[in-house]
Fold each of these.
Amino acid sequence: MDSIYLLSPMIAGAVGLVIAAFLYFRVKAQPSGNETMNRIAGYIREGSMAFLVREYKVLAAYCLVVGALMFYALGSEAALWFILGAVLSLLAGFIGMKAATFANVRTTQAAAESTKGNALLVALDGGAVMGLAVAGLGLLGLGAVYYCYRGTEHVGTILHSFAVGASSIALFARIGGGIYTKAADVGADIAGKVIENIPEDDPRNPGVIADNVGDNVGDVAGMGADIYESMVAAIVSAMAIALTIAPMSLPQIMTDSSDVAAVRMMGVGLPLILSTLGLIISIVVIFMARALKNKKPATVLRSSLMLPPVILTIVSYICMPMIGVTQNVTWALAAGAFGGALIGLVTEYYTAMKPIRLVAEAAQTGAGTGVIRGLAVGMESVALPMIIVVIAAYIADAQLGLYGIALAAVGMLAGTAVVMTVDAYGPIADNAGGISEMSGLDPKVREITDELDAVGNTTAAIGKGFAIGSAILTVVALFSAFNMEVNHVRQMNGMGPMQLDLTSSGVLIGILLGSILPFLVGATTMTSVGKAAGKIVVEIARQFKEIPGLLQGKAEPQPAKIVDIATSAALWEMILPGMVAIVAPVAIGFLMGPQALAGMLAGGLAVGATMSLFMANAGGAWDNAKKFIEKGGLPGHKKGSDAHKAAVVGDTVGDPFKDTSGPGIAILIKVMSVVSLLIAQLIALR
Amino acid sequence: MDSIYLLSPMIAGAVGLVIAAFLYFRVKAQPSGNETMNRIAGYIREGSMAFLVREYKVLAAYCLVVGALMFYALGSEAALWFILGAVLSLLAGFIGMKAATFANVRTTQAAAESTKGNALLVALDGGAVMGLAVAGLGLLGLGAVYYCYRGTEHVGTILHSFAVGASSIALFARIGGGIYTKAADVGADIAGKVIENIPEDDPRNPGVIADNVGDNVGDVAGMGADIYESMVAAIVSAMAIALTIAPMSLPQIMTDSSDVAAVRMMGVGLPLILSTLGLIISIVVIFMARALKNKKPATVLRSSLMLPPVILTIVSYICMPMIGVTQNVTWALAAGAFGGALIGLVTEYYTAMKPIRLVAEAAQTGAGTGVIRGLAVGMESVALPMIIVVIAAYIADAQLGLYGIALAAVGMLAGTAVVMTVDAYGPIADNAGGISEMSGLDPKVREITDELDAVGNTTAAIGKGFAIGSAILTVVALFSAFNMEVNHVRQMNGMGPMQLDLTSSGVLIGILLGSILPFLVGATTMTSVGKAAGKIVVEIARQFKEIPGLLQGKAEPQPAKIVDIATSAALWEMILPGMVAIVAPVAIGFLMGPQALAGMLAGGLAVGATMSLFMANAGGAWDNAKKFIEKGGLPGHKKGSDAHKAAVVGDTVGDPFKDTSGPGIAILIKVMSVVSLLIAQLIALR
């Protein structure tokens, strides 16, 4: 392949980073408002950064231990790229968080002194820094692996190691961040509403700062690491399949398929090229969105999410023939890209349309019936996304076999930069509202930030659907890559392919054991949020009791203590579920062999995919049912009515459902698959 | 085989039925108390029977339609035995319900005028009628099939048809009964506590009769059909495996294994012989329990549940060598029997011990945190039962391969009569308390019935664990039987065995589609309960508004209207989830072939097993956490406190979780497997 192809992923990645830097400084140059606003924003920024620093220390220790193990088992280069995969993820999280915590207060200030359009722009720019950092660093890293190791024998191992680095960080950042954000949210809510009966985001509540920190920690840094890892894993799975697929099964990706080595080489390079296209298209879309800042915010954000699949398909259709690639690639890619958009729309339906009215109505007869209805909505919402994934996988498989499924995952994640931009926009707008409230600004400012926030909530639902959908497809691809890697190693050792018959006891036992794991991660994360929230409630109650004048607004709360409690709890509690994800596949793989491990991945996929959809969407439905009542959706039941209180119970349950356990389970199945791929060569002969 | 072996299942079944008849008339001969008590008991009996009659009409229509289809596809005999399998299930439900609705008021009366021991005895006898009817009719029916068709070519088809009849009734009875019982329970509770603020079981509440009817409809008739079908399905799966297993894989069940035909014949007959032993042992245990009536009720019931595995293992160890059978059979049987008991104990831990205190404590900070903690407990409770099933399956597989797994399921269900006795005891004791309250008897009577009821709740948890555990193991066995049947047909047509490789797209797609179904059944049943409960609340509110003097206790409520609403709702709402269970495997089997169907069964198993454990145990934990607070378990929080109200919300959510959706999902996966087994020969060549 020409050197232009070779270099293009890294060049595109670097361009993305340069634009991210440009937007970062543009955001920072915006006016940041009065002293109170800066003080509050300072608290949030300090709390977020303090969490990140402490989290990174824990993760550094983890990386050293696992890096040492990898050094021992797979050599120094594997260990090095594992650490690089992790460091790039940390870097993306750090950059994004910095940008978000500058953008929040500047969004508030723009809403106060400038137009809604400018406020939207600041929030969007802040999100775009994260979006471009995630996609840019991902492409840069994988492009570098490919550039350095293409054609060598251990390119597979290096790719897997890089992916495990990315996955590890995503796992802990997502779970730790998820526990933090919901412990602070639930804790502050309960303490504020129930114990002291003071309104949301009230500056007297010592938990409000931690709640705002949580938005950044969970929805910016956590989500960023998660999407970064999905993108890396999807690309790596496609490359791994191309590297290990048997010559007779090579997919029909080149118009001239006579040279097997050339086809294989193209198969390995193609995922990177397609992701490069995706990043370029994403940059264009981000600038289009910036240009449309004065349109309705909802229109701007939704069209940003829906455009990339369309453009990507057209561009691929035009470009593929130019490099001698068949249109099968375009169709597989499009199946994934449109599938992702469709899943986003289904998610929006279940978390923002008719179902939330049903949940709100059910809350009229009490918290119990409201919770029941939300659970039912969540369960129902599982079907369509799964069917869409199946159809996308089916189409892609018909085009290019298992390689096609991996390309579909790449296609679903091609718009990563845009999805992440919109996702990170959400907490910025949310924070902007909190800062406006806590700084006692004119209620009109809050009105603007509330509108921006509401749009962010809807698009966050779409983004979340995207994330889980792509996770499922990626796991299917990784699962195939794992099996191919095992068979590749077996074949090189003169053994026949692994028998993965569904009725063999090893596979069946693996499936049953795998089905437990999502529930274990769900149980531990739900419990963690509950416990940490309880500690926060106790501390808030203590402050109101022991700080004279706090309730009257005459004294300052001590938010740092709450931040500290949430941080410690999150970092401590993330270890057990995180370890489950990493230890389970290693233990089963080494103790029971690759068949049982394949079964475990399949069982984990079936349960994990459905559970994460169920939990994320039930949580979204409760959240928006509550907001629906607050906006007067149920005549005769306004904020503070019994129906509203019942809906708040649903929202409380939904908080860890949608932001801790649901995403935690989705990342569990990704990490298990990536770890399995890495150890495949070590256990293939068992 | 000698004719004594051939006839013994039918003889034992008939003996069981004779004893059931004896106990039935013994119960009926007990004094039934004063006129008020008889009037209330009459309402409950009439409501229960009215439901049964209307349900049976719907099921008759279903049986005619499906019977006609089977007549067309598989011949007249298959259709006949399908209907017989269904009719025996209906008969067991009818007998059990009759007995239970006589026993309830007589238990109250025994508590009023005799000793606690005699009250326990009446309730136990009432339950034993159901227990013996279920096990007796099951053995009688399967014994007859075996007697008439042994050695013929179509014995497999007849067995499958009989099992599908049993499964179909179980499916609808379980789901319809589950919707009824929880709609009435939730509806009466909400209306009573929230709207009118009157205590539980208050005779003024028009929904209380329906609530008591629901206990019979759901926990007697529904549970009975469910356990009857588990027993039938376990036996049929073992027989089917023995019929179709390849000669070279025949399990080592006979000490002299030189005659392949004899081994196969013994393999087919053995499940019936072992179940016959199980029934005899159960009868002995039931009479032991009767003799111990003056001991602590908890001791009596718990030892009844724990004894059968021990006795069965000993008896099998002694008897098997006498008929030339290896001890491998004993070990496989024991693995299942002890596994079932262990799962029961694990269930008891999660629904009656430390975890419920944690849920109660979490309710101190609100309904939201209480619900979160209960969900976490339910999720955590999935792991151990699944691991126990895996270990039991592993041991059984090591002894006798897949046939051993089926025998383990037979072993787990050998104590069916006892388990069902204890399960049916629960609603009788519950009803007895309700009747005592509604009849205005001395509070001391209620104290006795409350103690009997509390014991019933704990043992019900054990029984429920048993039921789900045996369902999971049975599904594993049925799944194996399905695959063998397919391969058997393929081999007879000169084709190689079906390729069930986990990585083939058909299997993978099947797994993903199968994982949706438990969520669909969960969603529809949760929604149905919510909707029906809402209608009941509206009707109760109407009665309090429109019947003058009702609230003051000067006028009579109209319970029949509530019974009618619950009945219509349950019968109507059971159709959709029921159809999912039957249509899904047929559609996928005929459209996509046996590989995809096998994948669907595996995906359904992984998700269904874990979801049903999660829901059943979370529901049990919430229920008992509420009761824990009511009994003063949390110092400073008694009945009516905020913590108690919060726990009531958990209990409301838990009601459909544990008694509608959880069991509904367990039966879904059983029915899908049985239906697949039936159609295996029709789709094997696709």
Amino acid sequence: MSREKPVVVVVEPETPGNVGTIARAMKNFGLSELKLVNPPEITRNSEAYGFAGHAREDVLPSAETVTLESVIENYHTVGCTAITNEDSRRHTRYPFTTPRRLAESLKTVETRTAIVFGREGTGLNNEELERLDEVCSIPASESYPVLNLGQAATVVLYELRGLTVDETQLPDVERTRAEEREIERLYDFFDAFLDASGYNERKRAKTNRLIRRLVGRAHPTDREVNTLLGVFRRANERLRDGRESADEVANDGGRR
Amino acid sequence: MSREKPVVVVVEPETPGNVGTIARAMKNFGLSELKLVNPPEITRNSEAYGFAGHAREDVLPSAETVTLESVIENYHTVGCTAITNEDSRRHTRYPFTTPRRLAESLKTVETRTAIVFGREGTGLNNEELERLDEVCSIPASESYPVLNLGQAATVVLYELRGLTVDETQLPDVERTRAEEREIERLYDFFDAFLDASGYNERKRAKTNRLIRRLVGRAHPTDREVNTLLGVFRRANERLRDGRESADEVANDGGRR
């Protein structure tokens, strides 16, 4: 990915712990450039390092102290806030985007972007937001929409992962559906199983359909289908053996 | 929404702070039932209350201590972990879903669901995961996929908000695009503005198209279009006045 990754800016964070939390989220979601406006002192034995996880090795120690002016001059700026204006009469916090729509929109443009977060207590103030290019707000519960600073940053950076994470720990395709031929064999085995079990003949077609729906929507893997084929092959053999023995007993009985 | 909301279960949290962070995320995203398996002592002056925000008033004090067994018996359980098995030979951590796919899939089914998180240090162990119904993993950077417990919970609960948040603080439709007739008037005003400014006649059509593209993709509001109509109306009047004055001066000059 050649795209330039966003930088993260925190304006006047009050507690080193939150700076550490943000640094960790940055590393979790593939970001590295952290810029702080008027930060508290961040020492090696502060909570910032305690909360940063592995980001204590790189993101946090290379965080840079900057002015908001320098960020505004050099980046496309997105200010994050829980509090928006809801109609078009005031433009300080309106219109706004959401983290998901922000991720979509940044995908379509090559730009240096700064994601800007505000203080724990009061967030970004109006004077700051007025100077930023976009406003972004996390949809949350109307009755308590204000996330903690570190948690808000985590959500926003999580949503931007499509732009910032080159490779996740998860495989691209989690699993492959077993071949249809094998799945059909499973349905045949299951039908034979109903037969061998002496299942009610009138319900059989309906129950076969039910199994087809259940297995069908679970998108079984090779392994799952093979294991189940084994389970039913064995059960069917046993059921047939049992029936034959029973038949023999019955026949014996008849002969006696 | 009549759907039963998921409950959140934390197995052996080590630090009260993370319990508080999770309680806050729950309240931010519309959840209320927190269940703790073998938790640390959580006192009113512990970090749990410090980190819980307004959730200190309800979610946190009503958290219940439970056994994992009782959760497994009574809920559809989803275990969250950063570490998955990547192929179908082992089923403890495979197949797995992501928070976004989990939200999609829970939308289609009425069920009591428990979202289960593990310890800070080691997460959920294999014995625990084997007994849970689904495995969920947050896609993160391959080089550091392990989120802090509180941050992981925040991301998962954020993704589930479609099931759990009745009303967000954001309006359903953020803004309404101005009426097309008004936007067309803006383009007319802009064209008149180019004319009145003495803009190069050969470039005029091209520049009009450029403006149509720029304004078109910004989906302007009523307010924005009206303000711009006012800006150009005034500018066009001035430009025409200036031209008339200039014409008069030119005519006067001619008469002299």
